[in-house]
Amino acid sequence: MKILGISFGTKNGTNDTMCKVALKGAKDSGADVEFIQMSSLDIKHCTGCCACVKTLLSGKGSKCVLKDDFEWLLDKMKDADGIIVSDPIFEEGASGLFHTVMDRFGPRIDKGNNIIGTKVAEATGGKIPDQRILKDKVISFMGIGGSDWGTRVQCEHAMLALVPMWKIIDNAWFPWAKELIMDDERLEKVRQIGINIVEAAKDFEKSTYQGEEGVCPHCHNKLFYLEPYSDKAICALCGIVGKVDTSSGKTVFTFPEEQLGHAHDTLPGKFIHGDDIKRMETHYAEVRKTDAFKERKASYNFIEPLKVNN
């Protein structure tokens, strides 16, 4: 069994150390472990060109036009049975580098898209995408904060797992964590995250979320979009629509059972989203051909982007 640790922090900083603490727990539990220090990799920003998903859904594999270390990173992640992420908290949320990796996951790593891409490739004799992306996998996150600002970080971390439908085992964040290595009680919690990921990887079907209870009973998220002048609430992670009630003294999120079929982290929900995107893109392709679109687009070409003076 292979457990991969990924640190998004500064070289030899707190995130690197905490990732290694969790990996030591995994190793002591019998796993082979590997460690990646993201600060040493060259990861470019996603340009949003959509070439990856276009090749995927047309049966031509899944190709990214950017040339950097991302494919190496992705190969390591696909090859692991479980992943532990340690990430510094930036302004209450995940780091920019983490967001860059999440953006590069995009639609090409989406499990629903890869199922569709596989079927298209099989039907057309095309290139079947890497089937490791369809493999069940467990993942845990640690947000390491320098203060008590961290209300977005668990939701943002979980968004990475939502795309390939990896099962989250722990999703923790540690406030006031600069001296975490000297805190034996919290250090043991970090080590336990490594132990938990190994136990979960041993039996994926029976593995369960080990973190603290969230407000959403489906994805354990605590962030919600609340519509003004309405009792409607939308989970900011899985997208389930329901209601939030605090009358009992506890925050309770309830929703119709059929909403589970629309959740962003379920295959039915992903297929619904895929159909929506296909419908929009098809219509947009037709609109772009019209003279009205071309004229309106051209009317805003009165200004050129600034260039850096070197």
Q: Major sheet: order of its strands?
A: 2-1-3-4-5
- Please give the number of β-strands: 9
Assign the CATH class of the domain at 2-212: Alpha Beta
Give the helix proportion (percent range).
Answer: 25-40%
By oligomeric state, this entry counts as: single chain
CATH superfamily of the domain at 2-212: Flavodoxin domain
Radius of gyration: 21 Å
Q: What is the string of helix and strand elements?
A: EHEHHEHHEHEHEEEEHH
Concise account of the structure shown:
The protein has 310 residues and is of the alpha/beta class. It contains 9 helices and 9 strands. The longest helix is centred in the C-terminal third of the chain and has 21 residues, at 267-287.
Report on the architecture of this protein.
With 310 residues, the chain is of the alpha/beta class. It has a domain at 2-212: Rossmann fold (3-Layer(aba) Sandwich). The protein contains nine helices and nine strands. The strands form two sheets. The protein has a five-stranded parallel β-sheet with strand order 2-1-3-4-5, sandwiched between helices. The chain has a four-stranded antiparallel β-sheet with strand order 6-7-8-9, with no helix packed on it. Strand 4, helix 6 (153-162) and strand 5 form a beta-alpha-beta unit. Helix 1 packs across helix 7 (184-202) and helix 4 runs parallel beside helix 6. The mean pLDDT is 95.
